[in-house]
From TrEMBL:
Organism: Gracilibacillus oryzae
MF annotations from Gene Ontology: ATP binding; ATP hydrolysis activity
SMART domains in alphabetical order: AAA
Lipid metabolism among keywords: no
UniProt keyword list: ATP-binding, Nucleotide-binding
One of the protein's GO biological processes: organic phosphonate catabolic process
One Pfam family this sequence matches: ABC_tran
Source lineage: Bacteria, Bacillati, Bacillota, Bacilli, Bacillales
Protein name according to UniProt: ATP-binding cassette domain-containing protein
Amino acid sequence: MYEQPILQVKHLNKQFGSGCRHCTNAAQANLIKNYCPKCGTIYACRNVSFDVYPGEILGIVGESGSGKSTVMHCLYFDKEVTAGEVYLHDPEFEGLNLLTISSQKKRYVRNHKYGMVYQNPVKGLKMNFSSIGNIAEKLIAAGNRNVTAMQRIGQDLLETVHIPLFRMKEAPGNFSGGMQQRVQIAKALSNQPPILFLDEVTTGLDLSVQAAVIDLIKLIQRELQISMIVVSHDLAVIRMLADRTLVMLNGEVIEQGLTDQILEDPAHSYTQQLVYSML
Ligand SMILES: Nc1ncnc2c1ncn2[C@@H]1O[C@H](COP(=O)(O)OP(=O)(O)OP(=O)(O)O)[C@@H](O)[C@H]1O
């Protein structure tokens, strides 16, 4: 279906703690879930590898603590990795491991190549700026200076995410949870990034608002052909959105494949439980 991945993630590892003799052996057989009982080191993600193809939505599903957000935050440079490689197929970064580039270049990648929508809108938005001001902030960070152009881009984006323009000067702090997520999505899209990260964006919203946010994500993917990585503990959300899915447990990817295939024929016993609990 696709030629070349736009993003390649290889052997991503993130641990909290320095490890000990008990847990640093190759098999890590002494861990309890993702945790070393001797030294307390947490292996939040272990040897996680996957590709993301142009225009696809890749889902990452797993229970709380399985390491989904850690993967996403490492990719977005919010957390420093312990080890791993990430390659973006883009003329500016071809062949460079993004995890080892300078912090200035990382900032450039965040501002131009990636968009992020956090579970908690407080992390992604300035709650005391206006909604259009939030979008302008991201545009300015990417080097834009033309106020008229930024206003036009901001208004177009707010319309795309169905925020009425008469509310564009209002701070997102006044908005409902679903509206805040829409403003975050608009902000994340402002520099037309080829890759969008969405971390539990529907969690905590009521069902009808969840459905509207999911429809919006699907619309954006259809119209902009952007690649997305969507993290959720909820397989029903992943089923609605993702073309392919990774299943994580205790920091490891235990299964990956086409979402339909995983739902129809889950191989791992944990995935089977997830699928059956959805029925
Ligand atoms: N800053 C930190 N310090 C220590 N441990 C951490 C830190 N951040 C995450 N962890 C641990 O890493 C593991 C993975 O956490 P992570 O947040 O990635 O899981 P998750 O699957 O996204 O779960 P949730 O959906 O509940 O956030 C957990 O055991 C968590 O306690």
